[in-house]
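Protocol step 4 of 6: structure prediction from sequence.
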Amino acid sequence: MIAELNKQLQCYSLTIFYILIYFQNKIINMLETTYLTNNFLIAMPNLADPNFLKTVTYICVHNKEGAMGIVINRPMGINLGDILERMDIEIENPSSIGLPVFNGGPVQNERGFVLHQSDQKWDATVAVSDELNITTSRDIINDIVNDNGPNEVLIALGYAGWQAGQLEQEMADNIWLNIPVDKDIIFKTSPKERWQAAVANLGIDLTLLSSQVGHA
């Protein structure tokens, strides 16, 4: 009896949660666009696109021209050492070659990105926030393997991109939920646990939802 009551209460909570999300998105559409730079995008359980199934994407840029982000929980099964074989870089810090490389998204997956915490700047470093930067130039890789780079990094190939207005529409369609970035999820949480860790910050278990819940 108690178990059944708890199940019903949980269902009611989920229903209320999505009612709130629905009206929140409607209000956002009526007000000035809210840009999501330096936020996580959490893929909803009903998102079937294999490129983004149960992904967490760190949004590096979001403005009126579109958005760009790096998926942080899709390791490719290769490491930095595999990439270095093609870059002709001398290695002085052998431990760095074991750093995993992530599939950052389906766009330009031959292009490298390094997400990091550091006050250092390299040839192509962009500050996403006061604490997180993204660098695309070769010199940061050279410094990482020579023990002069940032202490915490996420290396990715490719990125996720949205055209002007596309991400806003997807948010209104309940494809994603967003939360403020949590650096511990990026740098201290196992990749296979990052989606659930991000979801936990919402205070609700999205894995209990059916594929139909969440649609307006």
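Step 5 (inspection) to follow. The mean pLDDT is 83.
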